[in-house]
């Protein structure tokens, strides 16, 4: 069994980790760290775990766990690791954005590997530290990797993606207040979203000369879960060939499904899947990509990384019933 | 023109008042008081008013307005009035619950009249101070008044009602956080809701010997606006007679519609209407009552009261397009 | 492996069965019968199964499967079975309401057992034919069984329950048309819902003298999944004792959780769980019960029954990640 | 008073017309034509009008009304007019798309004027026949007209817009079935939406040499009402100048509000307003445009056109309370 510690245990990604790990045959929750809820039952916050997980939040870190998941707010992981030392063997999976860019990835004499299995599977398997990708970044990269792999991105990439309200976290705010959010739509951080850095980094990893713009408008949707992303760019390549390249790239991937039929966001909710649909429109290829922001976009992918790091079957604990409706 | 001051200008009922008054032919907004937003444009908070209402919030009260609407949190109106004197002629309409019960209604040598026009129209017309009814209380009373009027409530009244998230106000909270609220349902304050007092008081006003229980379960619904209430009680009276009594009671009411067809909540959204449906089930009469919690359940009814107090046509400014969808 | 046939394969309960069985270690889908979609891929209708289940709908029944699930509309199962014979050993689990009442349960020289494991576990284990309970009926019975078991229901039971739109099935209709349903609430079949029969039958099974009314108002909610039910009745029993009796009744049940804390519907979505909350209000006990209408209220419970019938661990394939949000 | 006939009276745009006209001081509903509902009360379909509009649907056309609104499905208006003659003076406002393009606009020796007041106000005032713009087309054109007017569109225009489910009409369908639509997102007719024709036509009317692509992805949103559109294109012009040009273009427009603050869709729901927000991002200008698809995007604009055609104040009957929430 893998002894697991979770830091930042009150938030949505921690809750989703706990829900997933509850059914993971190799997972043993050692501690769930939360300064604000220390002493209270974990199920008092993640209430669906009532009767399933009967432990309390703690404000004490066990430095000897096999793996620790950092579910802190963005920008807080580095400070936490500087203040809390783990054993020399403890693996760390950071769900925040502190270590995702190569320029920030060095820590403690080692390097955080960017934990997108479809891009870095082998490096992940031998890594001790993982920077788990962002939710938008996951949906967008999976939509583009086969193009980059084949050196085909040679024009501006136009991205429009909408996220559910869980993406904004557990702390109530004006734009996640139900009266405002329900039946509404809006955008934020247009052209400036913080995930652009990791997206461009990955594209350049596969297509060294990539230097086109990625113009990205993120939207706030009227739903709790999911990311619906559309992307298009001009291609000089035959569409049938493109479809073939996508199918080849994802042929052995357990979680990515490629189709030329229309798709919708609900197909992947509550799963670790990413569905990708391809359409040709004149010179443009339109790529639609959908993920569950809390699963493939966060906690599911973190467990996928854990599985790879510990030599388990990648899908262990991640064969999830799709939401359907 | 009626010079109007609004106290507690940042909240939902104040916003709805301003939206309604923007099209009221006799209304002139003199000031909108908000300590937290003083100096900022009203449209910076109630953003749909951008280009329509170009005034700023103020923290200064003009004591000489013709009417002041108190849109403070429940329990704060009395303290505000004790700290802020208005002219001897200024009318006051309190949307909070401080003065709704007869035992609390005395103030400044006068008495707050309970502002349910279908119950107290004449008293409202000559009142200086009005306690505007609660939202649940409005839907529930309108469902029961014709029975009480005819002395027909002689058994327990069972009430189940669901409210939109605007009912919980503009301050974000855990149970109005979008990820939690959307696709969810829950109840709160079962059998103990604070509106029971005013409901029973009104029933006893019409049916002096009324002393049966009103068992009320309030629910939190997954929508922003509206109240959907079902009520039933045992009757010894012929159903056709009951329908006749309801039709007579509401015959000349501009905002209450009685039917024996099935109804749904959306019929009244964005209007000052209350739809009431009557069904017979064995010995029970089932009454369904729907209102918009922010209009007939709050700000619309407050303006209806203002119209009555100033001798205007009761529907002035309240002929509103129904939401439809 | 259990060879499985599914009849009425295009509907919601069939889709949910397929999603669940896709991860069931002992399940092998032999055929999915649909006259309207015969020849098309199952994943063309249940699109989330794309890449997971690569078989086509068929209009041919294999009479030798180990178990067949009937997912036809209510009232169509008997006709189907009369027209299509299965092997003498084939087990049948009917998700419709044709065989739920004892008076209708005889078929082919045998008897359909009412498949509520918390009530009839032993009979289910040895049954060949199962009548799977209705969704409302499941939520309501689980809320009341411990009272009935102890002979404590001695007054009218008042039930108000709201269901998601999947409860109305896959065929589009006026009251499940999105523009009408979203942000709306309504009731239907008040006091007359067809599940009342099976509810009363089960209560009488445990409490022979039960003859009180169950007054039930079913509502249409603005969400796709889930049932939120509140029930109350007058009790002469000490509340602490009642809590103790519920805890004892459900002590070894894998899917029912009893609490005295407040609960909400989302706690159980996408799971086979039922959460039950108990509150005392004067002489009334208030019981809140929540289930996922498609899982514990239909397909999950059907698989639970299959597990029992085939001697498997009851929770096989039913350890599901809760939706969370 | 204006005598009004409505054709296709059972649909959403007809219902919205009737709701709006109920409060229009110059409107008199002469007949509401519906072959499917002839003989039934209008309020049996548009139920919120119960107690407000007490007339029946008819299958007889009165050819002498002052104005007729065609609320038929797209492509059915021409056939209807060929089969049903109106008086020589009767004005016609077609809410469908039959006559929107100049090449299709000739009828009966006259020409349908494209009814976007911000573009064609003077022509509308003297027109007898109006082709009312499409909902997406309204939001998109209002976002672009000031650029076209000043000859500034000189690169591809990228448009992403999401519509509410009322946009798909009153007939239930798979993609407007509540279980599928709620909590979901999808796109349709990408790069091929039928509104592109009228959009390009209007841009060329103002900017004769306009020949750039308009790449438009329409999405299905999880809400009943509203359109949320984002558009961007590369500009060589100073942003402050652009803002000035927008403000000038819309300076005297009663329904269009220009801002550089962030906006959201709910600001305009239930109103005839269009809010436009401008942002600069490097060389790109980002324009956000929101309308209510049933009001400014359909029936409200149709009444605006009627007001202009009959010499009324343009805002008559269109000073609507914003939904707020």
Would you give an account of this structure?
The structure is a homotetramer of 325-residue chains. The first copy, chain A, contains eight helices and 15 strands. With 325 residues, chain A is α/β, with parallel strands linked by helices. Chain A has two domains: 2-133 and 296-309, NAD(P)-binding Rossmann-like Domain (Rossmann fold), CATH 3.40.50.720; 135-292, Dihydrodipicolinate Reductase, domain 2 (2-Layer Sandwich). Chain A has a seven-stranded mixed β-sheet with strand order 10-11-9-12-15-14-13. A six-stranded parallel β-sheet of chain A has the order 2-1-3-4-8-7, with helices on one face. A two-stranded antiparallel sheet of chain A has the order 5-6. In chain A, β14 and β15 form a beta hairpin. The longest helix of chain A has 15 residues, at 135-149. The first copy, chain A, is globular. Chain A starts with a strand and ends in a 16-residue tail after the last helix. The model of chain A has no long low-confidence stretch (mean pLDDT 97). At the B-D interface, α1 of B face α1 of D.
